[in-house]
Structures are given as structure tokens and as C-alpha cells.
Amino acid sequence: MTRGPQLPVPARTLAVEMSTTDPVPAHQEHLELPVEEVLRRVPVHPPYGEDVIDDLTQEEADAFLDAVLS
User: Most exposed among 4, 23, 37, 40, judged by the fewest C-beta atoms under 10 Å?
Assistant: First the structure.
């Protein structure tokens, strides 16, 4: 049995997806955190100069420094 020519399937558009005239948000929660909460969640870093990698050989340290400076 042979089929006739295939008709193209109409593409979906945003007009179909957004057909509501007065959309209502699904939730009213704010995604922005207060400053105090952000500061509480941030990991503590050591002071400048104390964040060092101690177990590198001299060759590894030189290669690392070259990579950072390039």
C-alpha cells in the first residue's frame, strides 16, 4: 500500500503557548536573598597571601606561575 504525499506539520509558536490574556504567576515567592543570608552562605576564604599550595615541587610551581601570568 502506498501513501499519499506527507503534509508538513504546523510548527508550534509562542502565540499558542501564551494565549492567556491575563496570565497569573504560578508563585509569588521572591528569588532574591537578603544580604545577610548571602553573606552567611558564602564560603570563608583565607586572607590575601595565605591561600597557597604548599605541596608543589619547584617545577610545578614554576609551571603554575607561567600559566597564571600568560
Answer: 4
Sign of CA dihedral 41, 46, 47, 49: negative
> What does the alpha-carbon distance between residue 13 and residue 52 come to, in Å, rounded to a whole number?
54
Give the angle 17-20-22 at the CA atoms, nearest 5°.
140
Give me the helices (H) in 1-70, please: 14-17, 35-41, 58-69
For residues 5 and 41, give the distance between their C-alpha atoms in angstroms, rounded to a whole number. 61
Q: Which of 29-38, 43-52, 53-62 has the lowest mean pLDDT?
A: 43-52
Q: pTM of the predicted model, to two decimals?
A: 0.29
Nearest to 41, CA basis, from 31, 50, 33: 33
